[in-house]
């Protein structure tokens, strides 16, 4: 089957054919480490981790994924200065927090993870090319700034589907030295108010790169002038990605063949962001739920849809995972054997052959994870039916394993040790307390069954069931899980248009 992806540039799904047969190249906008990562940051990383896994497992492609780190930026400098900390130390501190957050939820490391500060030379070269081609100019006020001339590029606005006439300069933009207030900075001349270490020498004057420039230079460096997919959050489509595309194509690069944008995470109806003060840091989230549940919650929705993050989202994810985990435990207790799902970087044809047609069709339809999950729970139900009947469960078990590999949510993966979906927070105190209380009731039920006091045994099971706890009897003993929610249904992506401001 053919993988179809919704290209933001065309506004419609397109057949994905890699530029190089057998290989796929993906550039993903990564962290600006100005502060601790929040749950919204993980949404993009998980969405593109699933894309990578599907390309590898579903289509046997060798994927090169580049995810940058913007370690020099206006906000990094401002926050580090306010804290009295060197900007590079500030950026590195939070870069490590981002890496730990990605690792916690099972996002595979990128093939390359370049820092902006390590590629200033390539950025200077790109600016020089744009000046030579007549698409960039040095500021008229002597500041040393270099700007991209948006009027020189008639295609400007094509990615965000907006007219240049509708673009207005952002409220906090500095118009000094610009020919047009809509022009954007490629290079920022050195300022006396900024640390000397935040400056590099260049033919047009000492300074530092603008925010948009770095991705164009690093994508070219690691993926070449043309690559398959550029991804990131919907909030980056304009102006960041629009500016990237304009400057790269103006310099002569074909740049990205596909643009993919994931929907945002909201809490209380508002976009999760530091500026609104509604951010939930990853550390705080993992204090109340397990990494596996958090990953499932962020992966289960269609990547282009908006996620309303809250207790119910996590409860739904926990219930669904409990159902999967209960089947795997039953299969293991019955002596069925299947390898746990591997991580990213695998193109195992055996796993690919085990994937149900419905799952393949769903994932090839613009990574329709909700429909893929429906196929997963069909296989879980069929597996449980086989176990009840005492028939061969190996086919269902292998299919479930293969689908979990694509989604990165196999509870048997050693990385999730101690993060069982059967507990409210994995290793959190509430989870341990609940597990101890339920185990005590299960032990009492086992004693009643051994004494053939089935009335008491049934009563204990009924009480647990009324509390939302499902009990499954296996040859190895009773297991418990939170009662699963209704099987997920596909949800239509929703994405508000970007505001036409720079």
Structural features, described:
About 40% of the residues lie in helices and about 15% in strands. With about 500 residues, it is α/β, with parallel strands linked by helices. The chain has a 4-stranded parallel sheet with strand order 4-3-9-10, with helices on both faces. Strands 5-6-7-8 form a 4-stranded antiparallel sheet. The longest helix is centred in the middle third of the chain and has 23 residues, at about 310-335.
Task: Indicate the topology.
Elements: E1 4-7, E2 12-15, E3 23-31, H1 39-59, E4 62-69, H2 74-83, H3 87-104, H4 120-132, E5 136-138, E6 146-148, E7 184-189, E8 207-209, H5 211-223, E9 226-233, H6 237-250, E10 255-262, E11 265-267, E12 270-271, H7 282-286, H8 291-299, E13 307-308, H9 311-333, H10 349-354, H11 357-364, H12 369-389, H13 394-407, H14 429-450, H15 454-466, E14 469-474, E15 477-482
Parallel strand pairs: 3-4, 3-9, 9-10, 11-13
Antiparallel strand pairs: 1-2, 5-6, 6-7, 7-8, 11-12, 14-15
């Amino acid at each position: 089957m053919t993988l179809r992806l919704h290209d933001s540039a065309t506004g419609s799904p397109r057949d994905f054919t890699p530029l190089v047969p057998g290989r796929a190249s993906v550039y993903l906008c990564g962290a600006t480490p100005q502060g601790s990562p929040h749950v919204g940051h993980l949404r993009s990383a998980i969405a593109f981790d699933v894309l990578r896994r599907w390309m590898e497992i579903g289509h046997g492609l060798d994927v090169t994924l580049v995810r940058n780190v913007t370690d020099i930026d206006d906000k990094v400098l401002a926050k580090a200065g306010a804290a009295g900390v060197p900007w590079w130390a500030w950026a590195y501190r939070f870069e490590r927090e981002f890496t730990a957050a990605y690792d916690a939820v099972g996002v595979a490391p990128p093939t390359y993870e370049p820092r902006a500060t390590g590629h200033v030379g390539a950025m200077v070269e790109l600016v020089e090319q744009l000046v030579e081609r007549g698409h960039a100019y040095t500021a008229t006020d002597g500041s040393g700034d270099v700007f991209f001339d948006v009027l020189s590029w008639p295609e400007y606005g094509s990615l965000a589907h907006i007219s240049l006439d509708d673009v207005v300069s952002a409220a906090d933009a500095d118009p000094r030295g610009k020919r047009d207030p809509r022009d954007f900075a490629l290079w920022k001349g050195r300022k006396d108010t900024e640390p000397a270490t935040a400056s590099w020498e260049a033919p047009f004057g000492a300074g530092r790169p603008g925010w948009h420039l770095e991705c164009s230079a690093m994508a070219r460096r690691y993926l070449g002038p043309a690559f398959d997919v550029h991804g990131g959050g919907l909030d980056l489509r304009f102006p960041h990605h629009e500016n990237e595309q304009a400057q790269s194509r103006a310099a002569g690069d074909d740049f990205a063949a596909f643009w993919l944008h994931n929907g945002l995470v909201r809490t209380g109806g508002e976009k999760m962001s530091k500026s609104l003060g509604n951010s939930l840091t990853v550390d705080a989230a993992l204090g109340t739920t397990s990494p596996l549940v958090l990953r499932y919650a962020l992966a289960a929705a269609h990547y282009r849809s908006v996620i309303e993050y809250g207790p119910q989202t996590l409860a739904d994810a926990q219930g669904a995972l409990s159902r999967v985990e209960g089947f795997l435990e039953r299969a293991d207790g019955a002596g069925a054997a299947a390898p746990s799902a591997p991580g990213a970087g695998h193109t195992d044809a055996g796993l690919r052959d085990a994937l149900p047609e419905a799952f393949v069709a769903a994932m090839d339809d613009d990574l329709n994870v909700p429909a893929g999950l429906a196929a997963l729970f069909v296989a879980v139900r069929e597996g449980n039916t086989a176990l009840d009947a005492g028939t061969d469960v190996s086919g269902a078990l292998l299919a479930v394993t293969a689908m979990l590999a694509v989604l990165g949510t196999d509870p048997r993966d050693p990385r999730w040790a101690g993060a069982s979906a059967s507990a409210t927070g994995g290793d959190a105190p509430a989870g341990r307390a609940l597990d101890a209380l339920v185990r005590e009731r299960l032990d009492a039920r086992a004693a009643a069954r051994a004494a053939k006091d089935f009335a008491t045994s049934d009563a204990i099971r009924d009480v647990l069931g009324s509390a939302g706890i499902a009990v499954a009897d296996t040859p190895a003993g009773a297991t418990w899980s939170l009662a699963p929610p209704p099987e997920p249904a596909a949800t239509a992506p929703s994405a508000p248009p970007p505001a036409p401001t720079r």
